[in-house]
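As promised in the previous annual report, we have extended the structural survey to additional targets. Below is the entry for N-acetyltransferase.
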Amino acid sequence: MDDFVPADFEPPTSLVTDDFVLEPLGPQHNESDHAAWSSSIAHVRETPGYADGSWPPVDGMSLEDNLADLARHAADFEARRGFTFTVLEPGSREVIGCVYLYPSASDQHDVKVQSWVRADRAGLDQPLAGAVAAWLESAWPWERPDRRGR
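The corresponding structure token record, generated without further manual editing, is:
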């Protein structure tokens, strides 16, 4: 498999807007991340890009299992296999969503882009998707993103 990003590429580690801040997702976000998605399972499952219905799990998951998931995402980021960002409330450590950048399984695309926000921040769904689309164009090396219909 070709490298997901060029060897000399330095992945961005933040995106700051007036409405949200993105930083790499990691174990330090466990409790807030778990609270964010588990409070919004139905909303996340209705978000474009989650049509297969496998995530988030309808019955949730334990905090320990969530921590393992976050550790996996952090390891992927470190190994440059995929890049997952937590979406934070500006000026806070409160998780309000997530953005995933992973290799596409399709020959038509080089990156699969998925994002979600908590149900109580649903108004940020489109602004987040738009900001990520612009960020992909300006700061990332991919030319054919699959933005899941957004």
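The longest strand covers residues 95-102. The mean pLDDT is 94. These points will be discussed at the next consortium meeting with the crystallography subgroup.
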